[in-house]
Amino acid sequence: MDAVLNKINTFFFGYHKNLEKKNIFIIAISIFGLLNILSILPDIYNIYGKNGVINHGINDFLIRDDKFRLTFITDAFEKIGLQYEYSLAIVIALYICSFLFILMNYYRLIFAIVVLIIHSALVASSYSFSYGADYMISFSLFINVLLCIDSKYNKIIYSFAIRLLQLQLCVIYFFSGLGKAMGNNWYTGDAIWYLVSTYTNVNILTAFIATTIPFLFQIISLSIVIFELFYPVLIYNKITKNVALLYIIITHIIIILVINLYTFGIVMIILNVIAFQPKLILELKYFKRNEYIAE
Hints:
This protein is 75% helix and 0% strand. It is mainly alpha-helical. It is globular. It starts with a helix and ends in a 6-residue tail after the last helix.
């Protein structure tokens, strides 16, 4: 029993690989979070404004009453006389500035917490628009908070953060693969054809492949199910780790190019790289020059 507990303790709190490089992970997550909010900045009032595409009342009806949302913050500003539009602008400005402060290593932990709180409120306040990418960004920002902690327990917290990220990815891919495996479309290849025909302009070549060698879509479809279902095993095996990681990254790149889910694809690539193969980014000269030595 003690041996098992020691192994569990070592797994969660004894992983110190690339601890000195954690600044790179913080930078990667923060830059992506900053670019994400900047990308939707032109539509910010359409999404979160009181006269936006979806009425606040509808959004509030879809989520729990105790769910922390944007109006919890803006109401405080409105009580002192500011209009909602100005209150929203202040919150978004604080959100953006917090990312910049994190990147400048200025009270990094405090602003990492601010970013996480505001992002959680933004996601809850756009429930009808939010999808998997928004929740993965929330999780990455939570990991960022842990990485920003510098104390005498730095090694323990870092190890827990990376292991938590690894396990989260394993759970996500396993149940994604399990869901696909419980249906029929992913065995026949129809799921891939549906994605191709729905999100791209089907040309003669694509139609020719679908009609003459339909098993190609079936092979691609089955490989996705297998890799996702066995991701936890493949990614922790030294022999298959690099192959599994490369396959997952290529899959997300294809998702970006075919379905145009840029946010989801990029955040999943970043998290996979941070969790399992940071060497893919650690060897860049920029990161070598700007590495942060963790105490």
